[in-house]
Model the fold of this input.
Amino acid sequence: MMTLPANPATVVLQARGLVKRYGHVTALDGADFDLRSAEILAVIGDNGAGKSSLIKALAGAVVPDEGEIFLDGRRVHFRNPLDARRAGIETVYQDLAVAPAMSIAENLFLGRELRREGVAGRVFRVLDKPRMLRETVAHLDELKISVRSMDQPVETLSGGQRQSVAVARSAAFARHVVIMDEPTAALGVKESGMVLQLIRRVREKGLAVVLISHNMPHVFELADRIHVQRLGKRVVVLDPRRISMSDTVAVMTGALRAEELAGEMLA
Amino acid sequence: MKHLPRAAALGPFVALAVACLFFATRTDRFLTGENLSLILQQVMVVGVIAIGQTLIILTAGVDLSCGTVMALGGIVMTKLAAEHGLPVPVAIGAGLAVTTLLGAINGLLVSAIKLPPFIVTLGTLNIAFAVTQLYSQAQTVTDLPASMMSLGGTFRVGGTAVVYGVVVMLVLYGLTWYVLRETASGRHVYAVGNNPEAARLTGIATQRVLLGVYVSAGVLYGIASLLSVARTGVGDPNAGQTENLDAITAVVLGGTSLFGGRGAIFGSLVGTLIVGVFRNGLTLMGVSSVYQILITGILVILAVGTDQFSRRGT
Done:
């Protein structure tokens, strides 16, 4: 099967020449980025390769010094994570950003609570709790996440279930892209498997997923394409079906140069 | 594990029941309608202050200035009405404005400038105290217009006289309960206290939530000023000194965590009653007020210790 060249129509999120400097340190040195619709794109790179700066720029958490970001072909300027969220890009942070003492339903709608109609909702901000509960059940069902009760505090859940709630929240509100930062880092084997399944279901919903991970087996299990970040730049995008894990790691660490790779390994 | 929080929520009620039982066996005068009504009347001021204190502690803050801000509000109200001859509603409005302003100053320093609430309110505690003394020249304000004390009037329930101010306190508790439970603003107070970073990332205007909480507390302290004036019939520049620690004690005894994000408003009402029952019962037993202060001090440390201990590891 031939890998098609990046067709502009299917690219959801794109970045060109991103630069981000912190004092004397250049975290991003003209980085490019392309994410296609309904794909899982893994972003890998050594520590200091600039992958977290890249992801933060795409999620609105940092503002790049130079470069351009396009969403659905249109230039966007994110000043903060809220801007990115409003544009339909949701991020699952590594520490999950949940309120542990609050319930699953409350966490799902945190900051975007559904309110009652009329004056009660508009002026007094009275919540529509039954609807939030119903929609939470629907969102979790859609992703086949099982929990005992939507009323239970998130802190009573296992690590994998907490991760699932955080992913469900992003998937429920994202219109274009879900960015996941190390979603399996703190999990055991069984729970990791559950979360990997969940990430696939998010793709099946038609959302594009950016997966940041250090876990090569997980990357190879899930990713449609692998973006390799090195020294502040994208060095290559690989096809995980046509390249070995060890070669991928070699490219990531600089032991193998991207130009030395066979053309079919590129995606 | 699942039922632990529910059991912990019952703790304050159990403590209150035990305290009542203890004093009932010590003195015949404790368990009379008249005395219970007196306890309610004695706690209405600290009870209203404790509502504001609860809101602030839910955001992982604390307000050490609550009692002295209340005293300043009382002095402003009474002086304007009794000595400057302003109409009572205007004088009350001015007192409320002053306590709200102090709440706003606390709130701005905590939210916009990001100073620690402990230090900020320690500062405003001293400022409010000094301004109260300077403005009143350390003199009690007397000869108040009768209408200023109307909330100190009573109505009869069965054979017992109940003060209107107690009803005000209960209504404020009910209102706060509803807001905290059923509105987006109320849930945001919990979220900001539970995980401020998560609250910010989900798009909650955390600074505005904090400012709102401190301003609301200021309004509540102003209402407490009015209740204090109605109860004592004077403007007392030295009011609020026991209320300062009592309000924090009541909130913590009521099960609200000093780490923020956990707690229930009715717990604070129960905590207020525990403090009130102790003060009243010890007085009936003839224990001197110094010992009451000693016991309140021990109570607050016990409550904070329980909070610390039960949250460890979660």
